[in-house]
């Protein structure tokens, strides 16, 4: 059984972290919904993959109107997933295998079923914990738009309106209220005391709002609800809590301004943040190099490690995206029926895996990426994602990257468990983990070897090497180089003594084919 590659206290600076979307990972009780029992049963698989930590999407009590990102109680596990005692066992069992646990906190909002919001609707003092305002006649208090489409305000029976930057079932909290701040610090302590190693912070730049709630005007600073300066005091308080437990934070921070982004990573705030420009970057050598350089430059002044991710539970799966004419990602561009070449996309995804795993910093792997899963087309009558419904049905939503995993090719429902909550498409068995485990050339075999070999790159900085147009080549440790060919023709390899790993075979002249990557000992 493989062992994680880092056991140091600064493990998070160079870890491989596997994202577990519990609902779709493995079903242990046969009801069609993934659960903690399913994850516990698959811990040996994750240990053999070689990951250092597991990041769990929200597993708390929730009506599941947004996949668990509408939390009703942070101190209870949703019954669909299991119990708090099971979560504690999972954390402990994973740690025995050398795998740490990261949980997800959603501080911007709660569920409309949260006790605070239910009391607020009843006219209680809890109304002060949210943004309730009178309207402008029959209009909402301002013209803010929801991230899911439509207005960001919903009217209640007494005529007031409440703010929700996401779905109406997700009312925003008022982070200017001390009770909100104290409750979340208590929640952090609750989970750190149960052995989690870190916390992922959802929508980390959205918590603070201008108390006047003015209309949003493009280009006017400061923004009324994105990246406000007062937010940093919240994260400084959180960092003090995490430091009591040697815990870490990773923030979901979508910001185009790299200087503003880096402020969240100062030594007394968050430890790391997701790298969205790299994840959404097209398969293009110049743009990828610019993204890598920009990422490293943004992190350097604050001494924070970069993070690299190709896909997550919100974006189109890598093999599908890389097989399209437009290989980037933009929520606004999502549409039904976009054609893709999965053979091409898979070849590029294999190369991208070696690219990301060779870069300095931490790497996140979304479940199923190691199986080369494509984006699934979900029948309209089975779509669950609120993004689809709030768009009026034009956005396919995010369900396509959340389809339950295939574990056993010949088992019912490909070994997931009961009939899955989202339908598995025809041909899903081709990607089954048991089949790939027997094939060293499969995507799973590639990920296992790459994670095992990744320490050869050491902890040094990235140094670009001379390369032809369309080829990326860099080293991090003396004698080890990563080369990725994104050009239209095969490329000669630099002098080397050993080919450590390749995403595909060399051509008959020993050259690197297009859309292929190698790790070399030079």
Please explain how this structure is put together:
With 522 residues, the chain is of the alpha/beta class. The chain is 26% helix and 14% strand. The protein has helices spanning 22-25, 36-41, 43-49, 84-96, 115-121, 178-192, 231-244, 258-263, 276-280, 285-299, 318-321, 342-358, 386-390, 433-437, 443-453, and strands spanning 16-20, 53-56, 60-61, 73-77, 100-105, 132-133, 153-155, 161-163, 198-201, 248-251, 272-273, 307-309, 362-366, 463-464, 471-477, 480-485, 498-502, 516-521. The strands form 4 sheets. An 8-stranded parallel sheet has the order 11-10-9-5-2-1-13-12. It is globular, with a radius of gyration of 23 Å. The two termini are 29 Å apart.
Q: How would you sum up this structure in a few lines?
A:
The chain is of the alpha/beta class. Helix content is 26%, strand content 14%. The longest helix has 17 residues.
Number of helices: 15
Q: If you average the pLDDT, what whole number results?
A: 95
Could you give the distance between the termini?
Answer: 29 Å
Rg estimate, integer Å: 23 Å
Percent range for helical residues? 25-40%
Let me know the largest β-sheet: 8 strands, parallel
Helix/strand-derived class? alpha/beta
Q: In which order are the strands of the major sheet placed?
A: 11-10-9-5-2-1-13-12
Number of DSSP E strands: 18
């Amino acid at each position: 059984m493989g062992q994680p590659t880092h056991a140091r206290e600064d493990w998070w600076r160079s870890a491989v972290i596997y994202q577990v979307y519990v609902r779709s990972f493995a079903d242990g009780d046969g009801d069609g919904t993934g659960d903690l029992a399913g994850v516990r049963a698959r811990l040996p698989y994750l240990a053999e993959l070689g990951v250092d930590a597991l990041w769990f999407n929200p597993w708390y009590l929730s009506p599941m109107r947004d996949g668990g990102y509408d939390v009703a109680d942070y101190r209870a596990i949703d019954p669909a997933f299991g119990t708090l005692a099971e979560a504690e066992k999972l954390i402990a069992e994973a740690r025995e295998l050398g795998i740490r646990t990261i949980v997800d906190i959603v501080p911007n909002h709660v569920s409309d079923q949260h006790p605070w919001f239910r009391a607020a609707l009843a006219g209680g003092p809890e109304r002060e914990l949210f943004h309730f305002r009178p309207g402008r006649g029959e209009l909402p208090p301002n013209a803010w738009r929801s991230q899911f489409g439509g207005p960001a305000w919903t009217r209640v029976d007494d005529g007031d309106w409440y703010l929700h930057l996401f779905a109406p079932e997700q009312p925003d909290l008022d982070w200017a209220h001390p009770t909100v701040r104290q409750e979340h610090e208590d929640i952090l302590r609750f989970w750190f005391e149960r052995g989690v190693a870190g916390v992922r912070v959802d929508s980390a730049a959205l918590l603070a709002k201008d108390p006047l709630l003015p209309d949003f005007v493009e280009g006017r600073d400061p923004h009324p609800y994105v990246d406000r300066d007062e937010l940093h005091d919240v994260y400084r308080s959180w960092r003090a809590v995490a430091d009591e437990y040697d815990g870490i934070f990773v923030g979901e921070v979508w910001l185009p301004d790299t200087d503003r982004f880096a402020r969240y990573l100062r030594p007394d705030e968050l430890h790391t943040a997701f790298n969205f420009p790299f994840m959404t970057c097209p398969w293009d050598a110049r743009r990828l190099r610019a993204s890598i350089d920009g990422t490293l430059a943004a992190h350097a002044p604050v001494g924070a490690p970069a993070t690299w991710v190709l896909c997550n539970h919100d974006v189109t799966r890598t093999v599908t995206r890389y097989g399209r004419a437009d290989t980037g990602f933009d929520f606004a561009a999502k549409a039904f029926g976009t054609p893709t070449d999965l053979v091409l996309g898979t070849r590029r995804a294999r190369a991208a895996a070696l690219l990301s795993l060779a870069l300095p910093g931490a790497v996140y792997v979304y479940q199923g990426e190691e199986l080369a899963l494509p984006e699934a087309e979900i029948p309209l009558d089975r779509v669950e994602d609120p993004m689809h419904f709030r768009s009026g049905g034009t956005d396919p939503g995010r369900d396509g990257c959340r389809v339950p995993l295939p574990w056993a090719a010949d088992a019912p429902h490909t070994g997931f468990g009961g009939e899955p909550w989202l339908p598995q498409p025809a041909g899903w068995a081709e990607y089954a983990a048991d089949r790939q485990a027997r094939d060293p050339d499969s995507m799973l075999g590639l990920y296992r070897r790459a994670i095992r070999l990744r320490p050869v790159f050491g902890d040094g900085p990235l140094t670009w090497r001379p390369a032809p147009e369309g080829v990326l080549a860099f080293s991090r440790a003396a004698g080890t180089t990563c080369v990725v060919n994104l050009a239209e023709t095969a490329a000669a390899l630099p002098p080397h003594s050993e080919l450590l790993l390749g995403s595909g075979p060399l051509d008959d002249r020993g050259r690197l084919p297009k859309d292929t990557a190698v790790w070399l000992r030079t």
